[in-house]
Amino acid sequence: MTRKVYVKVNASFSPDGVVLPRSFYWTDGHLYKIDSITDARMAASKKVGGCGMRYTISVNGRDSYIFREDDRWFVEEKETSC
Questions:
Q1: What DSSP string runs through 62-76?
Q2: CA separation (Å) from 18 to 1, 3, 81, 82?
Q3: In what order do the strands lie in the sheet with 51-59?
Q4: Residue 4's closest CA among 66, 71, 60, 70?
Q5: Residue 50 and residue 28: Cα distance in Å, rounded?
Q6: Is 55 exposed, middle or buried (0-12, 13-18, 19+ CB in 10 A)?
Q7: Which CA distances in Å does 11 have to 3, 23, 46, 79?
Q8: Per-residue pLDDT tens for 18-39?
Q9: What is the band of 80 on the pLDDT scale with cuts at 50, 70, 90?
């Protein structure tokens, strides 16, 4: 099962209006630096719903997505079972 988790994001803004996420805070307050962005496109999250700008990012050598949905950011979190 996967759930949508809204996160706080530090982003940069270019003079021509491009927004790029640089790091984000997890729900426990831990800061994760985004090492690279390999793609950015409008897309829907098929796992948790929602639509917006989807960034393919690398954090600590692992690829993932972060979404900008209107003025909020979210990631797809895999829920673990006990």
A1: EEEEEEEETTEEEEE
A2: 33, 27, 38, 41
A3: 31-33, 19-25, 2-13, 72-78, 62-69, 51-59, 36-44
A4: 66
A5: 23
A6: buried
A7: 23, 7, 24, 26
A8: 999 999 999 999 999 999 999 9
A9: low
Which residue matches tokens 């491009």? Answer: 18
- In contact, 57 and 67? CB cutoff 8 Å: no
The reported pLDDT for the residue numbered 67 is: 97
Say which residue the tokens 């050598």 belong to.
Answer: 61
User: What predicted TM-score, i.e. pTM, was given to this entire model?
Assistant: 0.89
pLDDT in tens, 37-57: 999 999 999 889 889 999 999
Name every residue whose Cβ is closer than 8 Å to that of residue 48 and which is 6 or more positions away in sequence: 2, 3, 4, 74, 76
Cβ–Cβ < 8 Å for 67, 54:
yes
| 64, burial (CB in 10 Å: exposed 0-12, middle 13-18, buried 19+) | middle
